[in-house]
Hints:
- By secondary structure, the chain is α+β, with helices and mostly antiparallel strands.
- It folds into three domains: 4-65, no CATH class; 89-141, no CATH class; 166-254, Rieske [2Fe-2S] iron-sulphur domain (Rieske Iron-sulfur Protein), CATH 2.102.10.10.
- 19% of the residues lie in helices and 20% in strands.
- The chain is built from four helices and eleven strands; from the N terminus they run ββαββαααβββββββ.
- The chain has helices at residues 51-65, 110-126, 133-136, 146-159, and strands spanning 22-27, 34-39, 89-92, 101-104, 179-185, 188-194, 200-204, 215-217, 222-224, 231-233, 238-240.
- β6 (188-194) and β7 form a beta hairpin.
- The radius of gyration is 21 Å and the shape is globular.
- It starts with 21 loop residues before the first strand and ends in a 17-residue tail after the last strand.
Amino acid sequence: FWDTAEHAGQEDKxxxxxxxxxxxxxxxxxxxxxxxxxxxEDHKTGQADDFEQRYQRLEDWTRVRWPQAGEVxxxxxxxxxxxxxxxxFIGRNPSDKDNVFIATGDxxxxxxxxxxxxxxxxxxxxxxxxxxxxxxxxxxxxFKGIGxxxxxxxxxxxxxxxxxxxxxxxSLDEIPAGEGAVFRRGLRKVACYRDDSGTLHEMTAVCxxxxxxVHWNRxxxxxxxxxxxxxxxxxxxxxxxxxxxxxxxxxxxEAVE
Length: 257
């Protein structure tokens, strides 16, 4: 379940920044053991670095309501796509060939939307009518979400300020093993990762999608784009779209400080 009352007074916040909690019961590793799965403290991809504080607030919220809960056994951060109207995009991919179909924008409801997609897309392929076609049409116009759409684009535009700011560190020596940081070298922003052996790896900090500057996620050890949510592993390999390309590695002569 989730506490919808927590939405009150947050209507003016952009999608993905509304604070609320959601809870479900899972099965533990031992027979008869139950695990309470609690989510919350959401943030936009690439726009938060206070992970420990968020985990602590989540644990504090949980223990107030379930004081009998035991130790924390797992912690992780996931990523979901949030359409303006919270409805998934299921159907023909806009501006593509008629035989290309998509199912995305699950807003955390992947099991539900996956089931719907399994029924809707076959009907579209076979030319059968389906009452959900217009509801989930990826080309639908979302008039109710125009305000959120504008807020989102203002938020995206603000991220380009990273081009004129300094780096996370002033010297590459400040980056410890197993960590990464964005370093400014002249006019260029460089994504630098030092592996566990101490070897430094450098790549462009510019996301291939729409050229925003990626941020280091020290919790997940990834490079995250704050504009549209693309994610890359520590070595710059793409993990999540919309980018379909890796962060370009820098040549040796470019990697000299």
